[in-house]
Design goal:
The complex is a heterodimer of chains A (314) and B (297).
Chain A lengths: L3 E5 L8 H5 L4 E6 L18 H15 L1 H4 L31 H36 L2 H16 L2 H12 L4 H11 L2 H14 L3 H8 L4 H37 L11 H7 L1 H6 L2 H31 L5
Helix pairs in contact in A: 2-4, 2-13, 4-5, 4-7, 4-8, 4-10, 4-11, 5-8, 6-7, 8-10, 10-11, 10-13, 11-13
Chain B lengths: L6 E11 L5 E12 L4 E6 L5 H9 L6 E6 L2 E2 L7 H10 E4 L3 H4 L6 H12 L5 H14 L16 H14 L4 E5 L7 H18 L2 E5 L3 H7 L2 E6 L2 E7 H6 L4 H8 L6 H6 L14 E7 L2 E6 L1
Parallel strand pairs in B: 3-8, 3-9, 6-7, 7-8
Antiparallel strand pairs in B: 1-2, 1-4, 4-5, 9-10, 10-12, 11-12
The chains are: A mainly alpha (314), B alpha/beta (297).
Chain lengths: 314, 297
């Protein structure tokens, strides 16, 4: 593109004789530089949190390959060396019962992450169906269902968790996932409901209903793609929340029994370790737990930033 | 009026409740019928209840009074056999005004067109489906290259064609078009109306066409109904309605069409229709062959 700028020369209001008669009325003064449109500097939040993703991936990989990294029974007690500080044989030391913390971290991580994922899958499934029913339902049903979620939110979730756990009996991985899952859906359900309320008047949804599309068809094809991005953040945060809750419960002695190793049950052993100065027993599982939670928070925040910037349906 | 027809609307009323106290009567006691293979136009100003009638015919809205039957099936019937339900779903199709919102912006044209087939479980075989999609795109004058694009990448005319193609895919027997051309520019409007005329001649479906462009309705429709303030005030074969309108509202509506001659246009007077305030009797009166007018006294 070459723009030749042509400018009038002289004073146009008072043309002199020569100028009128002469040739020089306009003059080429050179190429006009066209600058690129100003580009907004890339925002910090636009970048993916690669460090967090890498750390989380490493931890997840370690847990998946627990049998390769730390073969054998993680519950094996080396009674000769309890509460041993990190050394060549036990990289992370041993706990009060002589179990290798290194092995327990990877095997226990499996349980913790599994609980996080299972509980989140359950709560997301409940939230999506509940929110969609509330969103497409008549006004009275919507009001009723939303009041129920508000009641649910107003009761401390720990109370409900303890109550449900008491009903379900002794905790195991599945029961604790169910308990955590059925207590953490209301916030997601509220977001889903709001999105569905907006979408259900869309003519493509009406058209789909006219063609005979059932509830699940419309949910999967029209609603889900639209609200998925906005609940993604909450879903990731839910995984984090479930892992943290499991640790809390285990630490309080309400969660998994001692023989099922998870990061939480490892921490629950650690109360005595504090008195003896065996820092590795509490610090190392704590470090892994906190690292996982921080990574998930970072990823969740990045997802939220992405959604806020990205194009919306309306 | 006789109700022995393909689609019949009998004493249809619809009331929108806004709050507990405020309600709007969008449609009041509307009756008409559509013959098999006929194109019926419905005109009227904004807010006259045309779209509400269309939505009641499609079963999107449940009328608060009256009945809509399609080929003898009560559209809002509580106890329909599953066969009747499937017939209603497959044989009636709707085309909306704003093709921008009638197509899911996140879906490709292929998925949009496949949706009715998926719902009804038709043409599961890949090659067969592909052929069907291309054939239907061809009906509306689009080529197969468009299949992978998303609605946002298409022009308004192309989008409207895609939604027409989606409606045609099910080989419908009744198409309800709710102002299908109102959001398009004039040249595309003409194309789409020509397309409708051509498709109707080819496929022979029954067509309820809603518009406020009188010229398009005159060109396309066999019969025209005029709606005003929720009531059907006149129903007549197109030629008769345009040549000899009987209801004062219809006269006002027809004379509001501008004349493309500034001198004539400036000098002429446009009659204004004022609805009579105290109407004690309303009566459908037959004033000519197949020509009905709502007499208000």
């Amino acid at each position: 593109m070459s723009h030749e700028a042509v400018q009038p020369s002289g004073n146009p209001s008072m043309p002199t004789e020569d100028q009128l008669a002469g040739e020089l009325r306009f003059q080429v003064v050179g190429r006009l530089d066209v600058h690129d449109a100003p580009r907004a500097a890339a925002k910090r939040s636009a970048r993916l949190p690669w460090v967090s993703i890498a750390v989380l991936a490493l931890i997840a990989l370690g847990c998946l390959l627990a049998n390769v990294i730390a073969p054998g029974n993680a519950n094996y007690m080396d009674l000769a060396s309890p509460a041993k500080a990190p050394c060549a044989r036990y990289p992370f030391g041993t706990d009060m019962m002589g179990r290798s913390i290194f092995a327990m971290i990877w095997h226990g991580g499996r349980v913790s992450l599994l609980i996080g994922v299972l509980a989140t899958a359950l709560s997301t499934a409940i939230a999506v169906v509940y929110g969609t029913v509330s969103g497409v339902g008549p006004v009275w049903l919507d009001t009723l269902m939303m009041r129920v979620t508000e009641i649910f939110l107003s009761v401390p979730s720990l109370l409900i968790v303890i109550f449900l756990q008491a009903i379900l009996g002794p905790a195991n991985v599945v029961s604790i996932s169910i308990v955590l899952g059925v207590t953490s859906w209301p916030t997601i359900a509220k977001v889903v409901r709001t999105e569905v309320r907006q979408l259900r008047q869309s003519e493509y949804v009406v058209a789909s209903r006219c063609m005979g599309g059932g509830f699940m068809h419309v949910l999967v094809n029209h609603f889900a793609p639209n609200f998925l991005s906005s609940i993604m953040f909450m879903v990731v945060m839910n995984v984090r929340g479930a892992i943290a809750s499991e640790s809390t419960l285990s630490f309080m002695g309400l969660g998994l029994p001692l023989e099922i190793i998870s990061w939480g049950s490892m921490l629950s052993n650690a109360d005595r370790a504090l008195l003896t100065g065996a820092w590795w027993i509490i610090l190392i599982p704590g470090l892994f737990l906190v690292a996982t939670l921080v990574c998930m928070t970072n990823i969740g925040n990045a997802l939220r930033g992405k959604v806020n910037r990205g194009e919306r349906n309306l | 009026m006789p109700y022995n027809d393909y689609v019949s609307v009998e004493h249809l009323s619809h009331r929108f409740r806004l709050t507990r106290k405020i309600a709007i009567d969008a449609v009041k006691d509307v009756s008409f019928s559509i013959d098999r293979g006929e194109i019926l136009g419905l005109v009227g100003e904004s807010g006259s209840g045309k779209s509400t009638v269309a939505r009641c015919v499609m079963g999107i809205l449940r009328p608060s009074g009256g009945r809509v039957t399609y080929d003898g099936i009560d559209v809002n019937g509580a106890r329909l056999s599953s066969e009747e339900k499937i017939r209603l779903q497959c044989e009636r199709q709707i085309i909306f005004q704003d093709s921008g919102s009638a197509l899911n912006p996140r879906m490709s044209v292929r998925r949009i067109l496949s949706e009715p087939l998926d719902i009804c479980g038709l043409a599961r075989d890949r090659g067969e489906r592909e052929a069907l999609l291309i054939q239907n795109l061809d009906f509306v004058g689009l080529d197969a290259g468009i299949l992978e694009s998303r609605p946002g990448e298409l022009s308004g005319g192309q989008r409207q064609r895609v939604s027409i193609a989606r409606a045609l895919l099910m080989k419908p027997k009744l198409i309800v078009a709710d102002e299908p051309i109102a959001s398009l520019d004039v040249s595309i409007q003409a194309q789409i109306v020509n397309l409708f005329k051509h498709l109707q001649a080819e496929h022979g479906f029954t067509f309820l066409f809603i518009a406020h462009d009188l010229a398009m309705v005159e060109f396309l429709c066999d019969r025209v109904g005029v709606m005003s303030k929720g009531r059907l005030v006149e129903l007549a074969p197109t030629r008769q309605l345009y040549d000899a309108p009987r209801h004062p509202y219809t006269r006002a509506l027809l004379s509001a069409v501008p004349i493309p001659d500034p001198r004539l246009e400036r000098s002429r007077e446009i009659p204004v229709y004022r609805a009579p305030e105290h109407v004690t009797r309303r009566e459908w009166t037959r004033v000519g062959f197949d020509h009905y007018v709502l007499m208000e006294r």
